[in-house]
Amino acid sequence: MNHFQRKRGVLHAEDIPLEELANAYGTPLYVYSTATLRRHWAVLEGALRGIPHLTCYAVKANSNLAVLSLFARLGAGFDIVSGGELYRVLKAGGDPRKVVYSGVGKRDDEIGFALKRGVKVVDIESAEELARVSIVARRLKRRAPVALRVNPAVDPKTHPYISTGLKESKFGVGADEARRLYALAAKDPGLEIKGVAMHIGSQITDVSPFLDAIERVLAMVKDLEAQGIRIGHLDVGGGLGIQYQDEEPPHPDAYGKAVKNALRRFDGEVLLEPGRVLVGNAGVLVTRVLYRKKNGRREFVVVDAAMTDLVRPALYGAHHAIEPVAPPAREEMVCDVVGPVCESSDFLARKERLPAVQGGDLLCVRSAGAYGFAMSSNYNSRPRAAEVLVDGDTAHLARERETVADLVRGEMARPPGRRFGARKRREIG
Ligand SMILES: *Cc1c(COP(=O)(O)O)cnc(C)c1O
Fold first, then answer.
1. What is the Cα–Cα distance from 162 to 157, expressed in whole angstroms?
2. Is the separation of the CB atoms in 314 and 347 below 8 Å?
């Protein structure tokens, strides 16, 4: 369910024709729907009603301040993976006490920043990290709230790049290692055990891997509690998939209810870290056709958006539905939709059947709200797109289009020099 629908043949974002937005803000343009964001949030929250829980939106999926601010006002917590994301959450008015700090490679300065701001929990992913967090906490005369991210060793059956709970992935620790680390943490004056966490992957289209993983983690929780280690929360991570093409992911309501049911005997708070499912279908990328061309038998539509704006097709072979913004022509064409970047992986779609389009037409790339702008780059010195948040008949410019001056911020054509090791050289001389 989303609010990008045709009215009298013309594609709208809520009550505004996408063409008017493209004319006002230029292309490529990310457009998000407030109504869709609110609806996704409400469906998931509704499914979890009745159990103590905190839904922590996974910031990396779409970290625009306006999106974060909307979720903060809806009462969301946040799942972050860097100090930069914590900065964004705070800027957007998010409550640090509702922040879960995940990630396999946290630096001391990031850990210190998170502890000083009072995050809810730091999810630990290795023995060495556990020791570092304790050192940083004691240096700050604090106790760090921690949970171990356990690898339940289930196969989420998704793309290998976004499978994170396999036995040999870089994320989390195995169950045996987790037990050992809990015992260490329980004795460590710099640490306070809060809970246990898992996150098995992304774009998962079946509930069974989630339920298998929860079952395994629950077994571990039982053992730990038998040893006198209190597990106050169980974080089931994120990863619920959305429909891009012909996937049939569980409805968020069904997923939420299944999680609730699997955890009905857990005596504590349930945490969730949904990213994609909240924002994916709440955003589109609008791009303008520059040229059509034909090489051999292959037909190309060259557009002004590129892999620098939406890397998912190039990175994961992901499929995004593409359609004309104007009423679609009856005539069809099979084409590759490609961007201006000098890489053959720079495509938004390949062998896509589209209504015929020509130079100047606008295309709408659907389901671009998650891992779209957030993964964009300046490769080929392309300023990044603008982002607009629509609410009914009102558009809010949530991020200005970058300018060419933004591209060189911090660079110098003739940077002043700084000599290193000068004294030593002088001694030798
Ligand atoms: C990326 C990530 C999420 C969100 O994943 P989605 O597939 O977008 O729901 C949640 N938790 C952690 C630890 C993550 O790294």
1. 10
2. yes
102 lines ligand 1 (CB under 6 A): yes
Could you tell me if residue 416 is inside a domain?
A: no
Say how many Å lie between the CA of residue 119 and the centre of ligand 1.
18
Q: Which domain holds residue 161?
A: 34-277
pLDDT tens for the 429 residues of the chain, in order: 799 999 999 999 999 999 999 999 999 999 999 999 999 999 999 999 999 999 999 999 999 999 999 999 999 999 999 999 999 999 999 999 999 999 999 999 999 999 999 999 999 999 999 999 999 999 999 999 999 999 988 887 777 766 776 777 788 899 999 999 999 999 999 999 999 999 999 999 999 999 999 999 999 999 999 999 999 999 999 999 999 999 999 999 999 999 999 999 899 999 999 999 999 999 999 999 999 999 999 999 999 999 999 999 999 999 999 999 999 999 999 999 999 999 999 999 999 999 999 999 999 999 999 999 999 999 999 999 999 999 999 999 999 999 999 999 999 999 999 999 866 656 655
Q: How far does residue 259's CA lie from ligand 1's centre (Å)?
A: 16
Q: Is 79 in the pocket of ligand 1 (CB under 6 A)?
A: yes
CATH of the domain at 197: 3.20.20.10
Same domain, 9 and 39: no
Does the beta carbon of 276 lie inside 6 Å of ligand 1?
A: yes
Ligand 1 pocket: which of 62, 202, 242, 247 to mutate (most atoms within 8 A of CB): 202
In a domain, 79, yes or no: yes
Regarding whether 206 and 291 lie in a shared domain, the answer is: no
> Ligand 1 centroid vs 203 CA: distance in angstroms?
9
Judgement on whether residues 125 and 272 belong to the same structural domain of the protein? yes
Looking at the structure of the chain, the number of domains it has is 2
Expressed in angstroms and rounded, the spacing between residue 97 Cα and the centre of ligand 1 is: 19
Task: Classify each residue of 63-89 as buried b or exposed e, where b means 16 or more C-beta atoms within 10 Å of its C-beta.
Answer: bbbbbbbbbbeeebbbbbbbbebbebb
Residues 258 and 154 in one domain: yes
In this structure, the answer to whether residues 186 and 320 fall within a common structural domain is no
Give catalytic status of residue 342 as yes or no: yes
Evaluate whether residue 428 is within a structural domain: no
| Claim: this prediction has a pTM higher than 0.90 | yes
